[in-house]
Write a structure and sequence with these properties.
306 residues, alpha/beta, Metallo-beta-lactamase, Chain A, seven-stranded mixed beta sheet, 10 helices, 14 strands, disordered N terminus
C-alpha cells in the first residue's frame, strides 16, 4: 500500500469511527410514558356521594388498560378524557363493587364509536358473564345494529378467563402478571402488575395481607393498595359484616408493611373503607400508613393522575 492509499484508508476508518460514535450518542426514540388515573376510590357495594366505585386505568400511548369496573367507570373515563383509549379490561374478582359496570362500560363504548376489539381478563365465569350481559341487552343491540348501522358488539368482546397466577398478557407496550391473593370467601381474587416502558404499577385488588402480593410488587414503582381504617370498620361489633370486612381486607398500616416488604417506591391508598361515613381525613390515612412505610404515600382521590 503506497502513502496515498494508506492515507485514504486511515481517513475512512476515522470517519467510520466518528459516525459510529455519533450513532451511539443519538437518543433512542422516547419510550411512551404511562398514565395512571384513579377513576374510582371507594370501597363497598353501595353508591357514594363523593367517590365512584373502585376502578383505575393505565394509559400507554393511545392504549387504555382498565382495572376493575366499579359503578360510574364509563363516565369517569369520559371526564378524564380517556374513554376512547379502551383496549383491555382486567377484573380482580367478582364482587359487585369491582364488576358492576363491566358490561356497561363495553356497551357504552360501543354506543359511542367502538369498532376495535376489547380483550377482557378476569377469574371465571367471565366468559359466561359476558354472554349473559349480551343476552340481557339483545333487544337494544339488535335495534341499534339495524337502525344505526353499528357493527355487532359480541365479536368485539374477547373474554379471557384467568385461573392461576402468572403472565396474563404481553404486548408491544405492557407485560401484565397476576398473583392470586386472599379475599375470603371469593373463590379466586387477583392482583395485577403492569410492567410498562417507563415504570411498573401494581394493583392489589381486594385482599387481606398477602405474601403473594409482596412477591408480585417486589421493586415496583407504584403500588395501589386497598385501605381499611379498622377503628371505623362498618357493621356492629360481632356482626357478620364487620367480621367479613376485617378478615378480608387490609388496614392502612398493613398496606404500609406490604409496601415496605416489597420495596416499592410509592404507595397509593385507594378502595377506602369506610369511604365516607364516618369521615376519615387524609391525615388519618397517612398517619396510619406512615407507621409502617417510609416511602412516598398518596391518599387517592377520584380522577387523580399519577
Amino acid at each position: 500500500m503506497d502513502r496515498r492509499d494508506f492515507f485514504l484508508a486511515a481517513t475512512g476508518a476515522l470517519v467510520s469511527c466518528r459516525l459510529t460514535a455519533a450513532s451511539l450518542r443519538t437518543p433512542s426514540p422516547q419510550r411512551p410514558a404511562s398514565r395512571l388515573i384513579l377513576l374510582g376510590t371507594a370501597g363497598g357495594p353501595t353508591p357514594k356521594k363523593t367517590r365512584s366505585g373502585p376502578s383505575q386505568i393505565i394509559v400507554v400511548g393511545d392504549r387504555g388498560y382498565v382495572i376493575d369496573c366499579g359503578d360510574g367507570v364509563a363516565r369517569q373515563m369520559m371526564i378524564a378524557g380517556v374513554f376512547r383509549t379502551l383496549r383491555h379490561v382486567f377484573l380482580t374478582h367478582h364482587h359487585s363493587d369491582h364488576n358492576a359496570d363491566y358490561g356497561n362500560l363495553l356497551l357504552l363504548a360501543w354506543g359511542d364509536r367502538l369498532t376495535t376489539a376489547v380483550d377482557t381478563w378476569g377469574p371465571p365465569p367471565l366468559a359466561r358473564m359476558t354472554r349473559l350481559f349480551l343476552d340481557l341487552n339483545a333487544a337494544d343491540l339488535d335495534v341499534r345494529e339495524r337502525d344505526e348501522g353499528r357493527p355487532p358488539l359480541a365479536p368485539l368482546i374477547r373474554p379471557h378467563e384467568v385461573k392461576a397466577a402468572g403472565m396474563v398478557l404481553k404486548d408491544d407496550l405492557v407485560t401484565v402478571t397476576a398473583a392470586v391473593v386472599d379475599h375470603p370467601l371469593v373463590p379466586l381474587a387477583l392482583a395485577y402488575r403492569f410492567d410498562c416502558p417507563d415504570r411498573s404499577i401494581v394493583i392489589s385488588g381486594d385482599t387481606r395481607p398477602s405474601d403473594a402480593l409482596v412477591r408480585l410488587a417486589r421493586g415496583a414503582d407504584v403500588l395501589v393498595h386497598e385501605a381499611l381504617y379498622e377503628p371505623a370498620a362498618p357493621g356492629a361489633p360481632g356482626s357478620a359484616l364487620r367480621k367479613h370486612v376485617i378478615d378480608s381486607h387490609t388496614t392502612a398500616e398493613d398496606a404500609g408493611r406490604i409496601a415496605t416488604k416489597a420495596g416499592v417506591k410509592t404507595l397509593v391508598l385507594s378502595h377506602f373503607v369506610p369511604a365516607e361515613e364516618p369521615p376519615i381525613t387524609d391525615e388519618q390515612w397517612l398517619a396510619a400508613a406512615r407507621q409502617t412505610f417510609a416511602g412516598k404515600i398518596v391518599v387517592g382521590k377520584d380522577l387523580m393522575e399519577l
